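Aim 2, interim progress. The first record below pairs a target sequence with its C-alpha cells.
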Amino acid sequence: MSDRRQRPAKPPEELQRIYGELAPQFARFEPVDRLVLGPHRRALFSRARGRVLDVACGTGVNFPYLPPGVDLVGVDLSDEMVARAREAAADLDLRVAVHQADAADLAFEDGRFDTVVSSLSTCTFPDPVAVLREMGRVCAPDGRLLLLEHGRSRIGPIARFQEWLAPRHFERHGCRWTQRPARLVAEAGLEAVEVERSLLGVLTSMVVRPSS
C-alpha cells in the first residue's frame, strides 16, 4: 500500500478553515521558524532561479530565502495566508504575485516555471502525489523542484512519539507528520537527485527533477 493511502486526509474546505484560523499563530511562530528552519530554508531555496512558484506559500515564510531578482509567484489555499504573504512581500520590498489557489489544480501552463519551491506542505494535501505531479507539470523540463518537508524520523523513539501524537496533531492541523516525503516524490514519478535528512531525521530537503 502506498504511503499516502495509509494516512487520512482532510478536504480542501476544512483545510481552508484550519489554516485560516492558524494564520495568526503561524505569523507569531516565524521568529522560531527562522531560528530552527531558517538555515535549512536558505541552503535549499537560495538555489532557486528564474521564474519561481512557491506552492502553499503560507505567510510568505520562504520569501526571505529566495535569491534577489527572481520572478516570484506564490499560491496558497487559504485567503488569510495569502493576505499575510502579501504583507510579508511588502515588508521585504519584494515584487511577488500571490494568489489563492488549490495546489492540485494550478492555473499555469506546462513548464511555466524554472523553479518550484514548497515547504512543509505535502503533509496537508488531500492527495500529495497528485499535487507533486502538478508541481512537476508546471516546472520546465530542465528546471527543478526544491522541497523542504518533514516526516517520520528514522530514530526509533522519536518515530514512536510521532506515531503516538499523530492523531491529535492531524485533528488540530490537518498534518500527517509521519509521512515519508521521498517515497511520495517517487510515487509521483519524479526523480529526487539530492536528498538530505536533518533534525534527527525529521526534516528532508530534496532537489527534484520534474520528470524521471
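The second target in this work package is listed in the same format:
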Amino acid sequence: MPIHELYASFALTCLAIELTPGPNMTYLAVLSAMHGRKAGFAAILGIGVGLMLIGIAAALGAAAILSQSPALYDALRWLGVGYMLWLAYDCWRANPTSASPDRYAQARYFTRGLITNLLNPKAALFYIAVVPTFTNPKLALLPQSFTLIGIYVSIATAIHIAIVLLGARAKPYLENERIATHTRYVFTALMLLIAAWFAFSTRS
C-alpha cells in the first residue's frame, strides 16, 4: 500500500479511537466546565506533550521494555489509577466559581495533563501494537514512526480542543454557588468512575 494511503488509514483509526470516551476526554470536559478554557487548553498542551514523549520513547524501543515486564506495567498502571483518584479528590474540593486560572494554575493543569498520560501504559502499547501496522517495511522505520506519532497527536489535540470549547460553555451556569456545589459532586463521581474504568481497561 502507498505510504500516503497508510497515513490516511492511520488518521481514520486515530479519529475513531479518540472519539471513544476515555480519561483524557472526561478530565478535559470536567476541567473546562469548572475552570474555563484557559485551564482546559493548559491541560491539552500537557496531554499533547505526554503523548509525544511516549510516542518517541516507543519509537526508540523503550515501550517494548514495558510490554515485556508485567511488574513494571502493573506499577505504572496503579500509579495512574492512584493519580486519577487524587484528581477526583481535587475535583471534589475545587471551587467552580473561582476566577480564571493564573499562570501558576495553568502550569499545574499542564502538569496534570502530562502526568495523566505518562502514567497510562495503554498509550505506550498503542504505539507498539498499532503504529507498526501502518508502516511500509521498504522504507526507513523511524521517520515513518515519527510522522505517525505527529498525526496521532494532532488528531487527539484537535478533538481535545473541541471538548474544551464545549465544556467551557457550562462554566457560566456554575457561577451559582448552589449549582456549583451539586455539580462538583457529579464531576467528582465522574472522575471516580473514570479511575475505575482505567483500572479495569488497563489490566494486562
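Residues 3-201 form one domain. This observation will shape the mutagenesis plan for the next reporting period.
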